[in-house]
Write a structure and sequence with these properties.
223 residues, 5 helices, alpha+beta
Length: 223
């Protein structure tokens, strides 16, 4: 699989998302739930030539539609939705030769402290035999939702730039979004499969740069 640095992935996401108009989040009831954000985010986008610009999302898009309709998911797919905690996770597992592979996508929703905005995150990771093995589409994307306009736009000012300072050519980063609590766990993987975990702490509108640099790290061997 083609390997790209996390910085390149973030830069590519920035250019693509910044060029798009705001994404409308349709919902019923008093306020949108994580389900409404997932549906809006996964909606196909098309270029001037009529071709879909987001075919790489077809796996999770198909799983989400089948899940919503109560249909059996395709082999290797699992989808877990926790509306109460504003969290969802999609996994696709398969084996090739002696290796086990997994695509893991997490989505999460935070209410910002100003009561006027929400933050939606989409994290894509690829793993081989339990160890992070970054591919072309890996990375973390944020969208900021405005309650007044009922739409969301790409958001780059969330504090995740702190990860860049810890990354080196021999270290890759993966993210674990919170199902409980509000903080993001960042795993720094070295070339031997060891990982060091640090925390990006939620501050009401984003994540504290200082928390990533100063918090205690735990080191473990990949499963």
């Amino acid at each position: 699989m083609k390997r790209l640095s996390l910085a390149i992935v973030f830069a590519c996401c920035t250019l693509v998302m910044a060029a798009q108009e705001a994404i409308r989040v349709n919902y019923q009831g008093a306020k949108p739930t994580i389900s409404d954000f997932i549906t809006a985010y996964l909606a196909p986008t098309y270029g001037e030539d009529g071709e879909c610009d987001s075919e790489y999302m077809n796996g999770i898009r198909n799983a989400w539609e089948r899940y919503r309709k109560g249909l059996k998911l395709l082999e290797g797919d699992t989808f877990t939705l926790d509306v109460k905690n504003g969290f969802a996770i999609y996994e696709y597992k398969y084996s090739e030769g002696a290796c086990d592979f997994m695509t893991r996508i997490e989505m999460c929703l935070w209410n910002e402290a100003d009561g006027k905005h929400k933050l939606f995150a989409y994290s894509h990771g690829f793993y081989r035999d339990g160890q992070y093995y970054p591919g072309q589409y890996d990375g973390l994307t944020f969208m900021r939702y405005d309650n007044a306009t009922k739409s969301m736009k790409y958001h780059s000012d969330a504090g995740v730039e702190a990860v860049y300072a810890a990354k080196t050519p021999s270290v890759e980063c993966s993210f674990a979004l919170p199902r409980s609590g509000k903080d993001i766990i960042v795993a720094l993987w070295d070339e031997n499969g060891n990982k060091t975990e640090k925390t990006l702490k939620w501050n009401g509108h984003g994540f504290m740069v200082s928390s990533f640099a100063s918090n205690e790290a735990s080191r473990s061997k990949a499963p």
